[in-house]
Structure formats: structure tokens, C-alpha cells
Amino acid sequence: MEEPGSRNSREEGGLQPGGLNDGFSCPRPSISDPSQFSVAGVEIPPSSSLRCSLRFFESLRLRNAQMAKVKTHKGIAKRFKLTGSGKKATHRSANRGHILGKKSAKRKRQLRGSGIVCGASAKMIAEALRPGM
Prior knowledge:
The protein has 133 residues and is α+β, with helices and mostly antiparallel strands. The protein folds into two domains: 15-63, no CATH class; 74-129, Factor Xa Inhibitor (Irregular). Helix content is 28%, strand content 14%. The chain contains four helices and seven strands. The protein has helices spanning 49-63, 74-79, 105-110, 120-129, and strands at 15-16, 19-20, 38-39, 42-43, 80-82, 89-92, 114-117. A three-stranded antiparallel beta sheet has the order 5-6-7. β3 (38-39) and β4 (42-43) form a beta hairpin. It is elongated and about 80 Å long.
């Protein structure tokens, strides 16, 4: 407990030898390796807030040093399906969704089946649907 009438370090501005005394302070780094804290070959002084920020972001980078997830391309997944072999892709025919009244029966009948994509385009679709494989 503090005694009445005394001022704590926060009221005085919060500056302590180790930094701000608010729980978010950055401890003063050791100067054992000055080349560790340099930007474009310029040494950053030990008391600099920039040096503290650099340490913070470096620790975040090391903490999150995982590979990014490889994700399926959802736009391609909605439009194509791979065949059993995985070497070809099927797709629904275009012009078969709406405004069918003005299209002839022959035209609609020919659009009834699904189309197949082969070759380089199928390989690109397969890579987008099965990332990392």
C-alpha cells in the first residue's frame, strides 16, 4: 500500500531506468552485440524507442515463423470437379441457368451434359483444387 500524499512513478511521468512502468515497457537491451540493432548499417542507440520496436517485431516474427496455409481456390472449387483419375476436370455447360424460354429444345438438349477440361488447363485446375499435392 502506498502512503497518502506520496506520488507513484505513473503520476511523475512513469520513466524508470528500465522504461515505462505501465506493464508495456520494453526492457533495455544489452549492448553485447551492437550489430544486432542496426538498420541499413546505421547503429541504433540503446535508449532509442525504435530499437525497442524492432525487438518487439522481431520477437513477433520469430513467434509466428510457421508456413502460411496453402488453401483451395474456392472460385475454382465451385465451378469444377476432378474426375476419378484426377487428370481431367468436369464443368457445367454455360447458357443453361436461366432465360431458357427463348432457346430451342435442340440447343438446350445439346447443353445438357457436362464439359471436360483436358491438358494444361486441367493441370492448373487440379493444382488449385488440391494444394500441396
